[in-house]
Amino acid sequence: MEEITHGDTTWRFDVDFLQSRWTCLFGKGCLGILAEPSEHLGQGCCSVGAQLDGDDEARMISALGATLDPERFQHHAVAARDGVFTDNTHSATAVVDGACIFLNHPGFAGGAGCALHLAALDADESPIEWKPSVCWQLPIKVDWEPGPRNSEVATVRRWTRADWGADGEPMAWCCTEGERAYGGEHTVLDSLGDEIEAIVGTAVHVELRRRLTP
To answer: What's this model's pTM, rounded to 2 decimal places?
Structure first.
């Protein structure tokens, strides 16, 4: 672990993961998170609705969803009729046809994958600004715990099967465990640099890169 203290937070980083060649397998052999390998479904980890980080994020996702072009959003009609949430708590995105409402399935003319992600790219903006935080942060996981004298300790590591709880036991999930996803061209420090910076802030990200870049 590499430790960087900034303000009241001590950040602890899983260096092995950051220096690994992990890469997202969505559309490139991802087995998904169902009980059986389901690469053909093209769902990745979108077989469930995205858990939202509070009311502000829910409002943002609702507003962005309302701007999506039907040609880019396969379930536009469902969203217009029923909304994009699973229920009136707005705690998660709805599931339609076995996956998150924002997932365009393989064969959709507007492009397979997350409609929010595709719309962000169309707008020449970062998907980080458009997608639920749980979606763009994966496979990064941050564990928060109290530190001494009103400080906090945040451990930045790879997401594991255990983080899915009991639901993770039967999954065909292959994301960060095993060797399947570790054939990327760049290290995680580079390929997920924007995501890491969004999580830890610019000052900590710059220091992290200074320490870990040869």
So the answer is: 0.91
